[in-house]
Amino acid sequence: MAEQCPRTLALSALSDGQLPPRRLRALRAHIDHCAACEEMLRELEMLRSRLQVLPQERLGFDLGAVIEARIRAPS
């Protein structure tokens, strides 16, 4: 049986440093033998680095509060 590739979410969590050690080791072992996942991880890391250099935008108000008020408002 062929090994299943992880979901993009797992690769993204790896890129973000959000995996527990055991899962990290297993995923790294998979990536070492899977060119497709290695390429996907490379693309995610490139996207992450490009997003980090974007300027921070400030809304000047709490968008969360606006959304909550609209959810609570009668339709």
Written overview of the protein:
By secondary structure, the chain is mostly helical. The chain has one domain. 64% of the residues lie in helices and 0% in strands. The chain has 4 helices and no strands. The chain has helices spanning 8-15, 21-32, 35-52, 63-72. Helix 1 (8-15) crosses helix 3. The longest helix is centred in the middle third of the chain and has 18 residues, at 35-52. The radius of gyration is 19 Å and the shape is elongated.
Key traits:
4 helices, 64% helix
Give the H and E element order. HHHH
Structural class, please? mainly alpha
> Can you tell me the overall shape?
elongated
Per DSSP, the total helix count is: 4
Could you give a short account of the major beta sheet?
none
Radius of gyration: 19 Å
Q: Give the amount of beta strand, in percent.
A: under 5%
**CA distance, first residue to last residue:** 53 Å
DSSP strand count = 0
